[in-house]
Design goal:
alpha/beta; five-stranded parallel β-sheet; 15 helices
Length: about 325
């Protein structure tokens, strides 16, 4: 970067850049927001850009010039980073989509997958394309019955209300009945037996499709856990289930193609990451590509396996030798 103290700054050129920077934003950047970004008071910035500032115009121009360089550096770094492709179809996502489609026909399906298999992005993509479909994501704080039901209320677009469990559950039944919809319960492994049984009862009363997704613990609890007898009614209603600990090798190939990774060494490294148990799957690969690309960008070169190694050393995940 150029030190503006030792470089002749063209005031008019800087002024034109500042006006263009503000106006090219969508919507147009407010003077208050522009002020926060560049660190110049709005009461100074606005008249400077209008050519009406009565103070030290060169001093303001030098400050804006510094800001210009920071923006340019940020843009160059951003341009060097790979573009997140968003959802893309993999072998595993097709399996999950099939579970969702079966459930949407008025069935109950269950999927238990390890981290980084694409579960969350797949269900979000499905919900955007197939309506009515509601996603309720559970967490430890929603394990009990009433908290679970209120989380479903939010998924159904309802404002939170103080209700007893029976009232809250009846509202869900009334809302989904007769709509041929699909209720997706993500992270269902956090739920208590009572909460899971309540969801099953919604299906029995309304015919709403239910797809429960979670980690490997979910199916283990339902099928072989010490409470499996209490899940007997649920088990008898499950039309289809899927268990998968890690992404498949084809998933990794598709991931690399979607992210534009062509280097054989990098592809092999990411394959080792994704196919190692408890290493984070494709989610970890995504994090490493983004972090490694930032390392490479600082040296104005392409991504390398060494960058991925360096990135992984700063991650709180299982170390993979390569």
């Amino acid at each position: 970067m150029i030190n503006p103290r030792n470089f002749p700054v063209d005031i008019e050129e800087v002024r034109m850049w500042a006006v263009g920077y503000r106006e090219m934003r969508e919507p147009v950047l407010s003077w208050a927001s522009f002020s926060k970004e560049c660190g110049i008071p709005a009461g100074t910035l606005q008249p400077f850009c209008a050519g009406k500032y009565q103070g030290d115009n060169m001093g303001i121009a030098r400050k804006i010039f510094q800001f210009m360089q920071a923006v340019d550096s940020r843009n160059k770094r951003q341009d060097s980073l790979p573009t997140d492709p968003g959802y893309f179809e993999t072998d595993t996502s097709v399996r999950i989509q099939t579970l969702l489609q079966i459930a949407h026909m008025g069935r109950i399906t269950v999927a238990a997958t390890g981290p980084g298999t694409g579960k969350s992005i797949t269900i979000n993509d499905y919900a955007e394309r197939a309506q009515p479909c509601w996603i309720a994501t559970m967490k430890p704080s929603t394990s009990r019955l009433i908290q679970m039901v209120l989380e479903v209320h939010k998924a159904l677009g309802m404002e939170p209300r103080h209700l007893v469990a029976a009232q809250a559950s009846r509202i869900v039944i009334d809302r989904v009945k007769g709509r041929n919809g699909l209720l997706i319960i993500d992270e269902a492994n956090h739920l208590s037996i009572e909460a899971i049984e309540e969801i099953r009862s919604w299906h029995d009363e309304t015919g709403v499709g239910i797809c429960m997704l979670g980690n490997e613990e979910l199916l283990a609890r339902i099928e072989t856990g010490r409470h499996k007898d209490q899940f007997s009614r649920l088990n008898s209603r499950i039309a289809h289930k899927h268990w998968q600990r890690m992404p498949t090798r084809n998933d990794v190939y598709t991931f690399c193609d979607a992210w534009g990774v062509v280097d054989p060494g990098i592809r092999k490294y990411l394959e080792k990451i994704a196919l190692t148990p408890d290493a984070g799957g494709l989610r970890e690969c995504k994090q490493l590509i983004e972090a490694g690309s930032m390392i490479a960008a600082t040296e104005e070169r392409g991504l390398s396996v060494s960058d991925l190694r360096d990135a992984q050393m700063t991650r709180a995940t299982r170390w993979i030798a390569a």
